[in-house]
Fold this protein.
Amino acid sequence: MLNILIVEDEPLLARTLRQLIELNPLYRVTGTADDLASTAAAVEAQRPDLALVDLQLANGASGFRVAARLQDLGILCLFTTARPPSFPVSDLAIGCLAKPFQEADLARALAEAEDLLRGRRKLVLRRRLPEPLQLYGEAPPPTEEPDAGWVRRLTGRTSPLARLWKLVRRPAHFRSAAPGA
């Protein structure tokens, strides 16, 4: 069972998140908090495995500060915010779920977070994350290409043969700019 702490300053959204999370019997919400002080109290009351942290909180608190405190305690964070950071903050959180999101997006984000928390590895052919979800610190695994030996890898978008064919079809580009030449 994955214990989850919700750090959200909007009570209606916090209640909705709680209800959506508790639809899955494998997840349990340990508490809700709206700032740094209430987060510390909720962690002392019952330690969560994962925290869903909004970046803009009540009483002038920052979600980054809350995430840093939770990181010091060894609790993973997943940002849930309307304005995701423009840069990955992999030191503080495992990812970011941008609002507004749907129930399926939340379920997928929690499943990904649980896999990271439990250290599960999966065979990933093509990453299919919900549009609002961005995971930090995970680059897609490099694809293994068969070694062709003699085939040279092309770096451009257009093949050399296509470039040559384009020149053959339009030789006017090579003629002199002088009208009589």
